[in-house]
Amino acid sequence: MSYKPYNLYKRKTTKKGQFIYYCQVRDDTGNRMTARSTGQTSKPAAEAWAIEQLRQGLITTKKNITFGQYAADWWVWDRCRYIKGRLARGARISQDYVDGMRIYLRKHILPYFDSTKLQNITADQVENWLLGLREKPSSSGTPLSPTTVNHCLTCLKIMLKEAVRRGYLLRSPSEGIKQLAEKPKEKTILTMEEMQTLFLDENIDRVWSGDLFHYTLNLLAASTGIRMGEAQGLQVQHIHIGYIGIHHTWSRKYGLKEGAKWGSQREVPIPSKTSQRLQDLVIYSPFNEPEDLVFYGKERNVPIYNKIISESLYRALEEIGISTEERKARNVTFHSWRHFYNSLMRGKIHDSKLRRLTGHKTEEMTEHYTVFNLVNFQDVVEIQEEYFR
After folding, report:
1. 80 and 127 both lie in a single domain
2. pLDDT digit string (tens) for 197-210?
3. How far apart are CA 111 and CA 342, in angstroms?
């Protein structure tokens, strides 16, 4: 006996002795959906109506749902089942990441797959879409970068893999699709001499215009590899003699967030010079309550803007002889401090310890370093003191 994805039943009308057939299907959870009138008085005619409605996708079932229907709540923070499931299982996912995925979906995926039935999407279609994106101009009028295209592919792959898990598909059509080759602009780091020139005490006035705020912020980044958002989210209560605690990050859209990137809350040793400068900032700051931000902006609970941080660094670089053209050619940014710190420590301490300090995502972590103890990081401190005197 063949299975029908719909159920027909008669309902009496106001006319004496007149019946109309109604059609009812089940949603993706197995619950019966609200019945719809077929407008037909005979069962064969009602069945023909139901079949045609299903064929055109006017009645939604697992078998004929379009990609657009499936994607309706995807990457919407408070509605997406995928996000709710990850959070319920203790996985980390940020609202900024979700917002980015929603943009990729809306701008680059839905225009191609919106009306296509989910079950009809093929690997060939995905491949054609992917290669077509490389030719598609961005909002600036230039073709999308391979990196952006690959982000779009990641977004689609997650959605189709979830469709398999939820029973919409037997196999994801994107399963064997490979990413495009990327040619990211290589970041270079400052030389040791350039770094030390930037942070000479006697150069604070000339190089940093006497601004201890930005001087200390960059010194902290150089000597710890801290991310900009983590520096912006640093609170007074997490500054200690010889180390800092990284327990928050700042999001330009969502403000102060508990936990750093990838949930990498951690303690990081700092050299005595950085420690002293941070202590000075806290002592002389008008905002030195435990939950106040160390690098505050116009308000005590709002940090310095990203653009202002970057511009201050760029001015300092010009003062030590690195022109705007050279800086751009070398691709030196505030994030370069993170690369600088990694390069400084790499090979001098065990990689697991370095990951512990930088908060890089990793599946394995040496058990010995799961609990912070400054004594365990004495080798790090010695390196810091050597280069950041």
Report:
1. yes
2. 999 999 999 999 99
3. 41
